[in-house]
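Tutorial sheet, problem 5. The two components below are modelled jointly, 884 residues in total.
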Amino acid sequence: MTPAIAPPLAIALEDVEKRYPNGTLANSGVSFTVAAGEIHALVGENGAGKSTVMKMLYGLERPTAGILRLHGRRVDFHHPGDAIAAGVGLVAQHLNLVPSLTVAENVVLGHEPRRPGGRLDRTAAAVRVRELVEQSGLAVDPAATVASLPVGVRQRVEILKVLHRGARILLLDEPTAVLTPPETATLFATLRQLADAGRTILVITHKLDEVRALADGVTVLCQGRVTGSARMAALDEGALSRLMVGGDVPAPPVRRATRTHAPPRVVARDLGYVDDDGAVRLRDVGLDVAPGEILGIAGVEGNGQDVLARLLSGAAVPSAGEARLDGRVFTGLSPRAVRAQGVAVVTEDRLHDGAAPTLSIVDNLLATRYTRPPLSRRGLIDRGAARRWAQAVIDGFGVRAAGPHQPMGALSGGNMQKLILAREIADAPAFLIASQPTRGVDIAAASALHARLAALRDQGAAILLISADLDELLALSDRIAVLYRGRIVARFAAGAVDARTLGLHMTGLGPTVDGGDHDAVA
Amino acid sequence: MMPSREGARIALAVAAALALGFAVMACVSDQPWAAFRALLTGPLPSIDHTADGRVVVHRLVRFGAWLQDATTLTLVGLAIAIPFRARQFSLGADGQLFMGALAAAAVSLALGDVPAALPLAFLAAAAAAATWGLLPGLLKTRFEANEIVTTLMLNVVAVQIYRLVVGRVLNDPTAGFITTPPLPDAATLAPLIARTTVTAMVLVAPVAVAAALFLLRRTTLGYEIDLAGANPWFAARAGVPVARATMVAFALGGAFAGLAGFHVSNALLKRLPVDLTPGIGLEGIVVALLARGRVGALPLAALGYAYLRVGAQAMERATDVPREVVLVIQALIILFVVSDRLAPLALGLLRRVRASMGRRTA
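Model answer (structure tokens):
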């Protein structure tokens, strides 16, 4: 059965184990191989140990047992410098670029061509980057300032940076998390081209369709172990799904057939926001959300979604317009006053303003409810009640945690997000603003979160769902509005639009189909 | 990290610092052993048996000095550690202590020999220092003024106000030096141990720590301070009044420094000289550092630090080693304790040496 000429293996892991000093077993008995010139997808739930594999290959962590081989040679990296010297490059999920420098300067940063005397040779740097651009087909202007580039282009700069350092093996950690569908397509084409040129690519992803579109081979990790490894050619659709979720894919929540004709609970008119630098971030935004309705907001990041969420949750005061919940104005108030009116918010960046990673699960859950019984009375917190509630949430939401006193930061993204949503819906809000509720969350956790959102909707809450994940928007929303450069440029009823059309409008390429300054309900 | 392991780590750091300190002593002294002994046993009373079987305790003064230093240091440690829970680097314990002492003395002198003088002086000290502590909190939350700068500046202002008031307003012209009159007896605390200045304040310090712990762990106010410190952006989005929590943390810290001021004026000195030396407030930072910002560990850290201070004085008096050497040892201890990765590094090295030796014998 073995072919006469097997392709040489670029990456081989043999029974690799990683146990952290605190006893956590991140990887155990992990073995898989990636052929040279192959694009290999590493998939699995949050906390499955995918990132740890990446870190070991990049010298950020050392395996506690087992063997790593690159191009047939055994390696033992002590720090990333060793890995870079061995031709490994990492494109991190969070881009590490200096916004004020040019593309060329960013690419050569750390490995600069120098003139005699040690000064940076800008001409040589520009020439070098131009060469790289031509060889790789990554379309970037080397003279552009990084701050002026959209995120998809910035990611190309990151890839150029890695290529500049001579990487033969590229590691990418969730590269599409920040990209629009067209940008994703471009990235995949680029990666394919790099692989065809003989480079080996290992990519972490959560999304089934991406694995299908991109990968030659796939390895599935679950709780630190390899649960499956296959060539894509040998898999049909169902087999891949089952491999990834360890069972059949849970069905997406059923959209209600009947639409209510109730008057809208949330009415926003002419919302506008001008930031401190005088830039208009949001203009003339009008929205209606009926009880029991999910209004989806699509848009490429930075087109006003974050501002909209901030205005509606009391984190910023609109420069124009107002929004009402059940007839009462709730914009321009403090976050506490907004919450008191029945508004809840799942913020976009859970580690920045959605949780306190150093504090315990209990303390994180308390944040929006600590002022009232049953969790506190006369200024005294009932620690017992808080702990019992936290335990109930952990059990009820299927959160994988050691206990209520575990620090929030020790949890995986999906578990953290479950706790955040649990906190926000605990008081049955009338209006929930959910920004990127399943970003970076594995499939099983995402569908659990979707089910909770649907349940809240069915209780009669109005939900504003802001998401960069078009599949999520299409699956959950009753209507979808597209934000582009701070304006709503298009509105669609669910089922009347597909991802491609949304993508066009998100990038400003679609014809404006906004009927007026607000929606018509029903 | 588990508390027991943390304790072992700190013990290791202190032992290493003392060993290094001994090496320094051996370089500068002809009698390093005597000096080391004086340093380590100085604060302890010595117990002798006389010929007729009576027990005599010597050097109680130094023992008392240890306890009273630890009391002051615990309270000023609280003044640093509580704002730090809100991630505010307050260096203002000195100024708050001076304001507390001044308020306590002024109230005591104004009320005279009445029973209410003592509790009212106590409250006045806490209130005055809390108000003084609130200032940098206001400046921070209203005008985004860096609290490190404002607290240090306000220290200078407080000390000068203190000198002005003691020198011009509360001055006792009959004293022969610039000072307030002696405080009325009813307003001062009597020593608990004869021949020392150890008063009931030695019990107030742990009570203050317990109160602070209760406040931080069990009240909504303490929760707000913790949350504002752990992630102010999250706290704001969740509806927590971050600015208020920050100001409360500053004011609370100030109140405890004010109690330290009361300790100085109404328990230790019983009158306030114009040249009261600033600096003890800054040592509160050292104590808070040694306790790694943990409120519950402050009394222990203060006891340990005060022990070294008093031991240093004993050593200086008894031997030829200057007390600067002790400052070196104190600095080493702090360096070792706060260097998180040093102990694991040393332990790892030890393990590697042991492993390689094991291989050789095998």
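Marking note: The CA atoms of residues 300 and 506 of chain A lie 6 Å apart. Full credit if you identified this.
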